[in-house]
Amino acid sequence: ELAQVPSEQKAAWEKYTVPEGNDVDSIARSIVHHTTTTLARTPYNMDDFGGYQATAHSVRDKLIQDWNETQQVRYGWYHTIKDPKRVYYLSLEFLLGRAMDNALLARGLKEPYTEATKQLGFKIEDLLEEERDAALGNGGLGRLAACYMDSLATLDYPAWGYGLRYTYGIFQQKIVDGYQNEVPDYWLTYDNPWELPRLDISIEVPFYGHVSKYSDENGRTRHKWEAGEIVQAVAYDVPIPGFDTNNTINIRFWSSKPRKEFDLAYFNSGDYNRAVEDQKKAENITSVLYPNDNHMVGKELRLKQQYFWVCASLHDILRRFKKTDRPWSEFPDQVAIQLNDTHPTLAVPELMRVLVDLEGLEWDEAWNITTRTFGFTNHTVLPEALEKWSVPMLEHLLPRHLQIIFDINLYFLQTVEKSFPNDRDLLATVSIIEESQPQSVRMAFLAVIASHKVNGVAALHSQIIKDTIFAPFIKVLGPDRFTNKTNGITPRRWLHQANPDLSNLIAKKLGSFKFLKELSLLDGLSKYANDAAFQKEWMDIKYKNKVRLTNLIKERTGIEVNPNALFDIQVKRIHEYKRQFMNILGVIHRYAKLKKMNAAQRKEVVPRVVIFGGKAAPGYYIAKLVIKLINSVGEKVNNDKDIGDLLKVVFIPDYNVSVAEVIIPANDISQHISTAGTEASGTSNMKFVLNGGLILGTVDGANIEIYEEIGDDQIFLFGARSEQVEDLRHVQRYRNVPMNPELQAVIHLIENGTFGEPHIFQPLINTITVGKDYYLISVDFGSYLESNDLVDEAFKDKKAWAQKSILCTARMGKFSSDRAIKEYAEDIWNIDVS
Ligand code: GFP
Ligand code: GFP
């Protein structure tokens, strides 16, 4: 219970609340103060890391002040003027990257901090480099969550994120002998200044045990879950500053801790070791982020993570709601909860359990509240990614939740039966329970049934989910439940922070930095696209960014590349559906072609640097072979003196958010070449184009909407269309279609040992041999090569290319995450800005 400060002491509180200044002197003072107190160091034993830490603590102080202001004065219920409806974004991944530069830019404090640190003998760029990425995510889904938090804060929405504080983030990737090795990412080695431990906020999370029935005073049958194990969830808050506003929102990350009380049974029986063991087991729950991208693992520990997180988050939300004494029926008017993928779907039975078992509501009322509260975002249609939990495992870990899921299913199927009598097949197709051996729970179906809105992440993807995985639900629930929310990215990090020179140039041209909060203003650049002087300024910055990447490549791989070459980039998780394999096969084709050319022909060639980056899931054998192949091809090509700068192949190790910030601004072209219909959206495509790059891509995900905005002179689209894919697969499979001859020739080069021991790559080659090729590389290879030639041709015309580059940036207004978040706020969450 928080008490108001009595009026006598209020004066004292006010007197001693002296806000710190934002001038250089005050900033330098606070850095020195943190050096000598927080770090207990002195100028005599300082280094860049210490400088970073002290500066970070100084910035953190400012964020906390804004955080308090936002949470307590603006939204905090007891001080407040308003008690607005809030949105809670539940995401098992938040790929935040570094915080310091972001915070400085958000608060407009980069300049005084640069000066203050300079006076103390540091270079701010060096200090920023000392920060370790917060890498609590795999790829697109986690980075999307981070962009959305940035927009929610910037647009002044009352929002919170809830996640898990993994002790180990996504592994660090080392390349040894061309192969990926994984190193654990123990990112909390040093103190993390960007989180506020709130050890007082802790929630008990039950597991296992059994359910008993009893009659309440009204003679109603009620259920009581008696847990077999209880783990403590402790809160760590990470402030998320809005850009050019003091609004600072929060992500609450939960960490598992042993319960405060020892298990008395063990203690009394004198089994001290056993008691300690159990305590340690509790800490395991949040120790590691599962490194599987688009692949479901049926491990009990993963299920435990999900429930642990959902239970703690929901109880925190419910506690906050209960402070106002509103009736339960108003819960959905105060609270919107977004399920980021199916990972948090256990929140559905958990809310039902609280409302029915603990609060004594009738089932129907509880269900009504539940469905009005939740929204669900689907991010993939890949079957191997769709979560299904085995019924026996659920029953063991969460016996009451399983009962509730069965009841939800029963009532749902009853309503379906009423509307569609005698349609047994329909009942089986929409059932939450899959009649597999053992039975399993289809989490996506549960999420669809329990949410008032279900959305995909790009127009094509939202259509595909309606046509395929959720098609029967259109019939049963009606089309209105389904909607599209095309993804977006924050221009603050992906333009202003990653590409400061370009951001400054744009501001100079447009007269202000307003475009960073209203991205469609970029359109104002279009009229200069043809202006020779502006083109020069624009391309000079591109060149500078390419030099910056050239240095990073040299430093991380030892490879020297020429910044005048065309930089062709594909960075993302390594996955068969994303077809990095096709890219490297295309590179081999290019190499073979170059080798056959005479000197005169080579003169006409556009030199190209093909850049890859991305992690493969540790158990994903084929994806890891793709990495090996890229490195083997690079080894051969890069050392071929005869070819020189005409072609270079680079694999940048340990791709992460901060590396992306260097890579993306340096692109001339980026590749987004998934088999049509497999990449739900993609978001890096948006980042590359925003930074003045063209796209080489398939007619998939958000590529299509980018094409609609930037026009076909700025994008090279190729390949099969999604509506053809199924037929093509069938044909490939059963008709013995011969492999594309150019592809055949490339495979031959691998098999004859041009790139080292061929047997290593056999399993990879087998994935595309006749009768297989699920991702249709052979089908698309011809048009892929043609598009690559078109790219070369276009790049030769420097002036036209500069114009295209400017138009790319100018036309990206739609892809701001601000636009996406406003759509969610209006159509799904029904929340207002504060
Ligand atoms: C409470 C108070 C807030 C305070 C936070 C700190 O919020 O003013 O900033 O605790 O955790 F109301 P709730 O989490 O209870 O909303
Ligand atoms: C998934 C999808 C992407 C999509 C993101 C964000 O990404 O197409 O852009 O979610 O919606 F596959 P990953 O988490 O799998 O990278």
From TrEMBL:
<comment type="similarity">
    <text>Belongs to the glycogen phosphorylase family.</text>
</comment>
<dbReference type="GO" id="GO:0030170">
    <property type="term" value="F:pyridoxal phosphate binding"/>
</dbReference>
<keyword id="KW-0663">Pyridoxal phosphate</keyword>
<keyword id="KW-0808">Transferase</keyword>
<dbReference type="InterPro" id="IPR000811">
    <property type="entry name" value="Glyco_trans_35"/>
</dbReference>
<dbReference type="GO" id="GO:0008184">
    <property type="term" value="F:glycogen phosphorylase activity"/>
</dbReference>
<feature type="modified residue" description="N6-(pyridoxal phosphate)lysine">
    <location>
        <position position="687"/>
    </location>
</feature>
<comment type="function">
    <text>Allosteric enzyme that catalyzes the rate-limiting step in glycogen catabolism, the phosphorolytic cleavage of glycogen to produce glucose-1-phosphate, and plays a central role in maintaining cellular and organismal glucose homeostasis.</text>
</comment>
<keyword id="KW-0119">Carbohydrate metabolism</keyword>
<keyword id="KW-0328">Glycosyltransferase</keyword>
<dbReference type="InterPro" id="IPR011833">
    <property type="entry name" value="Glycg_phsphrylas"/>
</dbReference>
<dbReference type="GO" id="GO:0005737">
    <property type="term" value="C:cytoplasm"/>
</dbReference>
<dbReference type="Pfam" id="PF00343">
    <property type="entry name" value="Phosphorylase"/>
</dbReference>
<protein>
    <recommendedName>
        <fullName>Alpha-1,4 glucan phosphorylase</fullName>
        <ecNumber>2.4.1.1</ecNumber>
    </recommendedName>
</protein>
<dbReference type="InterPro" id="IPR035090">
    <property type="entry name" value="Pyridoxal_P_attach_site"/>
</dbReference>
<dbReference type="GO" id="GO:0005980">
    <property type="term" value="P:glycogen catabolic process"/>
</dbReference>
